[in-house]
Amino acid sequence: MVERVVDCRGLACPAPVLKTKEVLEKERPDRISVRVDNPAARENVSRFLSRQGFGVTVSEDSEGYLVVGSRLAGASDLAPGEEEILCTLSGPSGEKLLVLIGTDKLGRGNDELGQKLMTNFIKTLGEMVPQLWRLVFLNAGVKLTVKGSPVLDDLKELERQGVSILVCGTCLDFYGLIGEKQVGETTNMLDIVTSMQVAGKVVTVT
């Protein structure tokens, strides 16, 4: 059995996922242990390994987190390329709408008005289902996904209707909100960029 240990401590998003992906493609290990030092990297690497056909366990110690992936029976010996992963996750290209939200206020001018407009915008997104495929929150936009957000219930309802919600892990960490997220998947820039490639149309709100 081929086993590999990868140290990704100190690496910024999306480097831990990219380094793990490189090892899988070059060495095709049956078991891989990835050492990371922050919750965002832990979630991103765990999700990536799961998508590659690995059973994943996570432990925490004084050095951070250890993500261990063991190849499941029947899984391919070759890690699929990013395009294959995205096709599995997203459905047909050209049919789905992605909305990229990089702020917690809509428009420039009065902040109070901007917050009200953003709340109304999120509440109205339900009218775009089923065309609406994925919401991506980054920078100050991640504040809309945490405790106390006025649109939490609306986002959870969109998720219930099948809308995928991705939340930038680096951004959550920057604002000290990693433990406050209430909806969506913590993600990395690799997932965000490839999601934009797969979407039929991208709408950016900043």
UniProtKB/TrEMBL annotation:
Pfam families named among the record's database cross-references: DsrE, TusA
Domain UPF0033 stretches: 5-66
Superkingdom classification of source: Bacteria
Gene3D superfamilies: TusA-like domain
Family per record: Belongs to the sulfur carrier protein TusA family.
The protein, known as: Selenium metabolism protein YedF
